[in-house]
Predict the 3D structure of the following.
Amino acid sequence: MPSWINGRPAETLPVTDRGLAYGDGLFETIAVKAGRPLLFERHLQRLATGCSRLAIAADQSLIRSELLAFAAQLGEGVMKLILTRGDSLRGYAPAPMAEPRRILQGGAAPAYPVAHAEQGICLFECLTRLSEQPLLAGLKHLNRLEQVLARSEWQDSAYAEGLMCDTSGRIIEGVYSNVFLIKEGVLLTADLSRCGVAGVMRAELLAQARTLGIGTEERDIQWLDLEQADEVFLSNSVYGVWPVRGVARLNWPVGPLTRKLQGIARALLDV
């Protein structure tokens, strides 16, 4: 698996890196096809938003050029950018002159079962709750222990993903996906102003739906909304769209609007 640190091939990090010590940083996981990073501008936009929110003074132009060069070398697969605040001494306060560290890793694209996309999946109802922290909401930050705990809740291959709620019981997202509902022709997805990750495929599908004249809403999603939904699906920037057939006692068909948006996602990801 190829890896670069600050633009050069490397595989080791200083133990003083704040990403290692505190999860002080951000990451992006980007699909690569024919040497080209997909949904690239949306990934860069989310990264820049995260850097602004966390006050990480990273050179965005340099990051762009390194990602393009790494993707060209990788050719096909998935590349992961980890951007940390850099090194500092012991303690939470960052060193004033810390230089952000850029870590790039490449690997093969995950081989998900074709049935996930074609026939749909079932979700595991996770007990782990997402804490509500508006300052971090939407960001792809390095603190992922909630997802680690949630994913450890099931081993049964009957479940391809887990459904996560916040501490108030609102439905937010999957463990590594965003959740969409379709109700009376309107596309619904969770408000991510308190917690959750603002996925780049989520953003793209919302934009595409509006262009097509499909109504969209980003709002609080309750279990009652799931019960009343006509269709449910997940989105992710690597696999695209997976229809959801069921969670707990609820079941849905794989409907026409899900298929339409799945086709759009496939075109974007060239799959």
